[in-house]
Design a protein that fits this description.
alpha+beta; 26% helix; globular
Length: 141
């Protein structure tokens, strides 16, 4: 597997983010696209590929505040064991002191994934303050 930076506007990125949006809509009723601006300064978007070039998943990190990044658009195609963890490790290695993220409380699979990888629930931040359906998590790196 190879993980590389990729332009969010590329066809590969668009394919993966469309799959993610469909999956999130099925789980939460919302696609999650409103909370990600791919052209925002400092965004790193990455794509994971199999050795044969097949798309496996994607993820992004963006600066939130000094030393803090926010994980966005994390997705691993079904049946690609280990891809999500590899993407997360790659994003964690980008030099931030902490990473924050938000997922919906009904997305129990995502919550379990992030907790397994050392993320703990924190108070909701930013646009998620006051939203009972949002769960914010953080990890000190």
């Amino acid at each position: 597997m190879e993980i590389r930076a990729c332009a969010p506007a590329s066809l590969d990125a668009q394919v993966l983010m469309a799959e993610l949006s469909a999956a999130l809509t099925a789980i939460t009723g919302a696609s999650g696209t409103a909370s990600f601006a791919p052209d925002e300064a400092g965004v790193l978007f990455v794509v994971a590929r199999a050795d044969d070039g097949a798309l496996l998943g994607c993820g992004a990190v963006r600066p939130l505040q000094a030393g803090v990044g926010e994980i966005k658009r994390m997705y691993a195609r079904p049946g690609t064991a280990g891809v999500g963890a590899a993407l997360l490790r790659h994003l964690e290695a980008q030099g931030y002191g902490e990473l924050w993220l938000e997922t919906r409380s009904v997305n129990t699979r995502a919550l379990a994934f992030y907790r397994k990888h050392g993320y703990a629930v924190m108070e909701n931040y930013g646009r998620y303050i006051g939203r009972d359906d949002a769960v914010c998590l953080r990890k000190v790196l």
